[in-house]
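Because discrete structure vocabularies remain unfamiliar, we reproduce here a specimen of the format, pairing a chain with its fold in token form:
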Amino acid sequence: MRRGTDTEHLWVTSGRAGRAAHVPETAVPVVEHSAAWYEALARARRVVTDDQLPEWFERRPGQTVVQTWHGTPLGRFGTDLDGSLYADHHVLASLAHRSAQWSVLVSPSRFATPHLRRALAYGGEVLEAGSPAADLLFAPDREKTAERVRRRTGVPDGHRVVLYAPTYRDHLAHDRTAPSGDRPGPYRWDPALDTAALARSLGAGHTVLVRRHPRVTGSVPTGPGVLDVSGHPDTTELLLIADVLVTDYAGLVFDYAHTGRPMLFHTYDLEHYRDTVRGFCLDFETRAPGPLLVTTREVAHALRTTGVLAARHADAYESFRRDFCDLDDGGAAGRVADRLLADGT
């Protein structure tokens, strides 16, 4: 979260860990749930968030709240989970009150707009601006940024980068009866992909980066050719340096699609996730812009034959970008800023 120092233009951002951009020099960082955080949230004239604000928060007169959410949804969420096995009914009951505090909801794509409206119980203004988080992927100096990120993460020069970034599993939740302050995250880290075996199979010249979802806790095994980048402050920077993305049902596939680089999907629990755990906002099995793989050996083989697979899935990839990633062009943050300034100073 960031707070401006000018009280006339006080603003605050609050976002999901792991997606937040670097704090600019003109801003003052404050710790979430600290006294400074509560003060900023109460006094800010403009609030920008990419996740839910506290349930008790109420927008005061003269305050503008912009909800950018955290990307295009792939798995079902919000009210679409009502009646499912892992629905949190307390959270569902609070959605209408929470969304009523927003001045505007920023949608990353035309596909996402109706899903966000329905699942977040929101009936207010929607700004179809694209995803501000994806702007970096279009930036003129993105190659310079990529070099800096490679050095920071410890990727050796010339290595092919494989980013493994799975989402969380609802059925692997920690004890929900425990006070939220007693645990750093609600879901357990329990990957089915053997990254050590994957790195050994790929051999020299490859580095596997492992990105644990920010809502997941647990140690990430590292070793030769495997680096844990869960603490890196910006997920989009990792997408920028990844030559190949290995994921499962994570929504970051919509951002990564802008790179045009190969995606592999480790869908070892597809039926369970689809039919029992969460389900999808689209026909994932038909529309996935890459192969659906089950075992570590299959993933390793696919990584050695990405050229063939890219050609095989080229049409699916292009239609995926056309239908689900239509608004991004590098100017989303500017459009959000214009909307903020439209409320006056």
User: Anything to note?
Assistant: Residues 174 and 186 are 5 Å apart (CA to CA). The mean pLDDT is 90. The first helix runs from residue 35 to 43. The first strand starts at residue 2 and ends at 4.
